Inverse folding.
């Protein structure tokens, strides 16, 4: 007779992926012990508002917490506030920094990503910030009240969203980016140009093709200037280091599990150890359909969908060996100055872009790889984004020629394809 | 605090106090009321917090943005005359006694 895993299940990382694994196990009827280990204080929360509504002060701390802390108690989920030191795979236990051991039958790594440090002398000066945690956002909120001149190192989503939120405080940030445009490989040139001009119209400035080489402070140890690679010195009493993130693979590596820009997992989110899974920002997932490189994404959708899949697997008999591989359409969103960007699919590596829509303020860009629709970016076109999600998930996108035809409508095409 | 009643598709219902300024979506999720997914966390990006509002109260709600209107065309269960995204409904005193019905599924 086959049995579902009886637990205990230990989940390391209490971000949105870890939360959803824990609660998802209960939703799916798992009734063994569940422990959720997080090193940050307070109730589990969600990060997307940290660069947006929370940073602007539009919402308070309570609204960062998708679920009340009591819910975990009601669902018999043990919230463990500690740092996981290492995994004892032979002993099937997670060893915590306070010396405790949490035995597991199944372990889920949801350790997320860590911001890359700004590798520049002076980055330890007061007034130099990073933004990933609630505590860092709180510090930035305070600093934004006082700041005079702001420099943002990195024009990724965090850097841009931060600059947009800073404008709500009346600041005009300078964004320094080593590439020639914002948002790197994540978006098309057209969409990048839209966000560049959007920021410029709100008073933010860009310096492309340069990096922050050093930070200079005053005698009190407070940052005063950012020095760029071309020697320019920008006044700065608030610097945000937003130069990307790296997966947190420390525990997996320490336990001898394979790592490949993330904890390497198969298409069922399992590591080489059948008792250990990985989900969310930290997981590098083998493609469901045979070959190709592993994919690691940093997004809410990815965290939640993988968490739900892992919960389903663990709640099933035989730990879900019969479950079809994980395969969900990635999607993303960003909000800057009230302009909404939604992306369905993965833009990286596209070789052709077809613009649909007439305005600079509202449009979609269809991105193709080898003639097949790979991603659709929609700016202030939510219905087109949803149409794109349906088409991409079904693999029934329009050809580039169809999309480029006069009067083409993504919504009409999706309705006809349904 | 306005009392809001959530009626599930299978007819179970829950009434909770939702603080002024808190969204109808958040009121459900933070009280463990099932039927609302809210995958995007309240940004009108995912259309998984779809509700049907009591028809008698629908007209008295704050108007919807074009963005919400467009997202409502894409819900997992059919849009009706009284459809709203609950993340876009911030409770105020006028919400007292509001009833919303959650659709059978959100995704």
């Amino acid at each position: 007779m086959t049995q579902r895993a009886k637990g205990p299940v230990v989940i390391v990382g209490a971000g949105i992926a870890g939360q959803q694994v824990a609660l998802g196990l209960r939703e799916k009827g798992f009734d063994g012990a569940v422990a959720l280990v997080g090193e940050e204080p307070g109730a589990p929360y969600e990060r997307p508002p940290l660069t947006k509504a929370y940073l602007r002060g539009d919402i308070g701390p309570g609204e960062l917490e998708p679920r009340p802390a009591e819910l975990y108690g009601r669902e018999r989920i043990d919230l463990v506030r500690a740092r996981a030191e290492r995994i004892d795979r032979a002993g099937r236990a997670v060893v915590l920094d306070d010396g405790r051991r949490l035995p597991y039958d199944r372990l889920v790594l949801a350790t997320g990503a860590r911001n890359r440090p700004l590798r520049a002398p002076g980055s330890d000066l007061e007034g130099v910030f990073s933004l990933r945690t609630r505590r860092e956002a709180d510090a930035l909120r305070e600093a934004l009240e006082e700041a005079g001149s702001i420099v943002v190192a990195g024009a990724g989503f965090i850097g841009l969203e931060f600059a947009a939120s800073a404008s709500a405080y009346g600041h005009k940030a300078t964004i320094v980016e080593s590439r020639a445009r914002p948002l790197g490989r994540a978006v098309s040139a057209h969409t990048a140009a839209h966000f560049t001009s959007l920021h410029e119209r709100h008073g933010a400035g860009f310096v492309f093709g340069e990096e922050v080489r050093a930070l200079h402070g005053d005698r009190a140890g407070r940052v005063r200037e950012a020095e760029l690679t071309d020697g320019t010195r920008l006044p700065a009493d608030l610097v945000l280091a937003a130069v990307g993130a790296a997966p947190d693979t420390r525990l997996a590596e320490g336990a001898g599990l394979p790592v490949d820009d993330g904890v390497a997992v198969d298409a069922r989110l399992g590591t080489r150890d059948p008792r250990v899974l990985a989900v969310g920002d930290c997981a590098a997932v083998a493609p469901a359909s045979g070959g190709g490189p592993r994919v690691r994404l940093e997004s809410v959708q990815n965290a939640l969908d993988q968490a739900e899949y892992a919960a389903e697997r663990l709640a099933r008999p035989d730990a879900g060996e019969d479950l079809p591989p994980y395969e969900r359409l990635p999607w993303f969103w960003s909000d800057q100055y009230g302009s909404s960007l939604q992306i369905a699919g993965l833009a990286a590596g596209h070789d052709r872009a077809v613009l649909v829509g007439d305005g600079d303020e509202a449009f979609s860009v269809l991105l193709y790889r080898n003639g097949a629709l790979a991603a659709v970016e929609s700016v202030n076109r939510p219905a087109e984004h949803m149409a794109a999600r349906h088409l991409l998930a079904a693999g029934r996108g329009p050809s580039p020629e169809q999309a480029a035809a006069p009067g083409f409508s993504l919504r009409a095409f999706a309705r006809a394809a349904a | 605090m306005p009392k809001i009643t959530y009626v599930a598709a299978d007819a179970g219902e829950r009434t909770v106090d939702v603080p002024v300024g808190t969204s109808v979506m958040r009121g459900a999720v933070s009280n463990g009321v099932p039927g609302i997914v809210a995958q995007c966390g309240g940004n009108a990006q995912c259309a998984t917090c779809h509700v049907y509002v009591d028809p008698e109260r629908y007209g008295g709600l704050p108007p919807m943005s074009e963005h919400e209107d467009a997202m409502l065309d894409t819900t997992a269960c059919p849009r009706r005359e009284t459809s709203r995204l609950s993340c876009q409904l911030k409770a105020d005193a006028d919400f007292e006694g509001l009833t919303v019905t959650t659709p059978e599924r959100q995704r």
Summary: The first strand of chain A starts at residue 9 and ends at 12. The interface with chain B takes residues 46, 48-49, 63, 65-68, 71, 74, 300-301, 304, 333, 335, 340, 342, 380-383, 386-387 of chain A (CB under 8 Å). DSSP finds eleven helices and 25 strands in chain A. The radius of gyration of chain A is 23 Å.
